[in-house]
Amino acid sequence: MAKQTDNPPLASSPPRDGSAPVPDQRPLSQLWQVPVLLAGALMMGVGLYMVITSSRQPLDFPGALNTVEKYLDANEFDDAQRKLTAIASSMPRADRPQRARYEMLGGDLIYLRQRANGRNIEAKHLAVLAQYETAREVGQEFDGRHRTRWAETLMALGRDQEALRFVDQLEDQPVRQRYLLIKRLIQRQQQRPDGKDPQKLAPLLAQFMEELRSETDKQARRAEELWATAMRAQVLLDVDNPRWAIGLLQRRIMLFMDQGDDDDLAPLMVLLGKAHLKIGDYDESQRYFQLAQTKLLSADPLHADILVGLADIELALSNVQQALEYYSRAERDWPAMPVYLLALVGRADCEAKLGYDPDAIEHFGRAVKLLNRTTQTSDPRRQALTDVVLSHYDKYYDQQGYDRALDYLSLLKPLYEPKLPADLLLRMAVTHERVAEQQLADAAQEVDEQSLADASAAASMVPVLTREARAYANRQAAFHYARAAEHYAAHGRAVSTIDDAAYGESLWKAAGCYDRAQRWKDAIRVYDELVRTRSTDPRQLQVIHKLAMAYMADKQYPPALELFVRLIERHPRSPESYASLVPLARCHIELNQLDHADRTLQHVITDHPAITPESRQYRQALIEIGKLYYRQEKFEAAIERLDEAVKRYGHRREGGALRFLLADSYRRAAGQLQDDLELPLPQSKRQALQAQRAAHLETGQQLYGQAIADLEAPEGDDLSAIEALYLRNAYFYRGDCAYDLGRFETAIELYDQAAKRWEMNPASLVALVQIVNAYCELGQKQEARAANRRARAHLKLIPEQAFDDPSLPMTRQHWQDWLRWTSELNLFEPQASAAGAITR
After folding, report:
1. Residue 733: φ, ψ to 5°
2. Closest among 603, 531, 524 to 567, alpha carbons compared
3. Considering the chain, what is the average pLDDT of its residues?
4. In whole angstroms, what is the distance from residue 797 CA to residue 806 CA?
5. Residue 625 and residue 664 in contact, taking contact as beta carbons nearer than 8 Å
6. Percentage, residues of the chain above pLDDT 70
7. How deeply is 451 buried, as exposed, middle or buried, from its count of CB atoms within 10 A (0-12, 13-18, 19+)?
8. The whole model's pTM is what?
9. Which of the listed residues 125, 197, 395, 756 has the most CB atoms within 10 Å of its CB?
10. Are residues 477 and 440 in contact, defined by beta-carbon separation less than 8 angstroms?
11. CA distances from 774 to 649, 730, 752, 788 (A)
12. 521, 528, 522: which is closest to 547 by C-alpha?
């Protein structure tokens, strides 16, 4: 039997036997899809019909635009924006009046939103004008309110003459709207940097008065006439014409008094007081200020102007303390008034005059921040503040109080950043340089420890600096030299196109200050610029020499050497050529070109036609060649040159170092003679070498003592690192000379001095070991054991890595002798241990 399928064949399927198809006999419950599909098709058709018919219905443009206008009147700008956006796509189907109104309302939205946010963005103003222009082109008629908005937008863009033409279009508007528009134009013009020109304001004021004549409200007209009179007087004061202002104010005050009482004339009286102040009539000025005070309520903000005016009078009369009180009251009580800035600056000025510099600097700084936040760079009050601050800068600069002068000068930088004016850059550069020079002068002060220990002497001494303070002063000097260099360089760039001489001078000073700050790479950069750009400058050879020296200081020896050679070969008779010879030799030494260095130095001290033993170049060359021979272990040649150097320059600052090098050359030459004595020699030769060796050691011992005395002089606190090393080693090598001479008692004494002087230094072990060796040489076994205990105890305290220091004055021979005597004399025998010997 065939298997029955789950799904019967569709009605359209033919029977398997080929007979006619049999109709579908399924129940109606299985045919539910058909009515659902029919219903869906019907609903789709209805929807399409509704869409088509709705798109053909006209949008209620007047109602939508009325809604936008209501939103704008209620300051609901976001709702107005959404409504305008919603109808934007349908506007092509609107008629011309509707499209014109749509554009106008778009301009209104931008205008009102910007005004509500207190912004003044040029792009927004231009957008307002664009939409208004489009609306007018489409046919929109503008009423007085919109013409006023249009005019104010033009004013915001500085297009005052265009704005003024709108006044003629306001005939159908109330007269008050017309003259108030002109008033706003006058106020805007007065706020412009060039608005103090009476020629520009006079026509506006005349038109304002012409419109004002039509005002029927006497009280309103009087108030506006008072305002116009005050404006005219203020303009005259702004252009330094106080006498005309006095004449105008006196006439107008009399006219106003004829028209009624004088209770509202306080603003004019304040201006009259300011005018008299400008001509130096302080009594009249004070009288009008005080008269105005009697006519004002206590909360009237005009009190701030009066307080500042009274302060100005007291300051002019040199009553600085009283002026400070007036300024402080105005600044404290009226912070929101325009005169606040004047009060703040006046207060700071008085504080500076009274020596209250920290307070003055704080308040000047606040004034600078206020100007930066609220004014344009062209605001004349910026220059006024600059002049006041510079007056205090000049005072301190003239008194050589450069630190305080710099404090005041630095206040002005935020006013002009990022591009400081050239004169301010130059002042900054010069002042930083003077501060650096003072810091160096302070660092050069010497400390007399003995006098400082005496309290009575210390109280009467000029204050001096400790070593740490001097180091700090040197660091500060370097900082200020670097800042001076930066400002000199900036000044040079600022004037490069208008004053070539000033450009060159500032670059020269910038490079020099970088040099003194030891900012070698910056110095190289500026010197190189001078070399490249100012080939005709009289200082060109100096610049090349300075550039080479900066390269050498930066350890860039090849370019330094090249520049020195160029100077010497091309300008052999120039001072710069002479000054380049020893640095050239030093470059050769650093590059291990020792033969070249030798020849150059020999040329300076033997056969240079223009260099004498009295010259600086001769001194440098003589010392340098002595050091070169010392470095090459040519000790006899070194002795010859260093001995001459000591005789000529031993009294100078470098005397101690020279004596050490000469002493060490004698000691090490004696060591070379000792090596020669180990060879088979004729008796006469041996005796001569022995005598020469003894003489060398004798002389070396004396010179080491002299070097110690020189290097431990009061100025010893300022020893360089190499001088400090010379001082330490001189103590130990002096003992070595006595030891090598066989003067063991003297050696013990000298080593003991060294051990005590350098007790905390690992080098002290050398002295302790040599004391052991010296006692052994003397056969004093008990003393040797005691010294050995002391040396071994000290050895245990010294970290192992300390012996890696190549500058330690402890040689292999010292260790060998110590170990030899320890072994030969059995310094560690039991009784020695019982006596307290310490072993490693």
Report:
1. -70, -30
2. 531
3. 84
4. 19
5. no
6. 82
7. middle
8. 0.72
9. 125
10. yes
11. 36, 19, 11, 11
12. 528
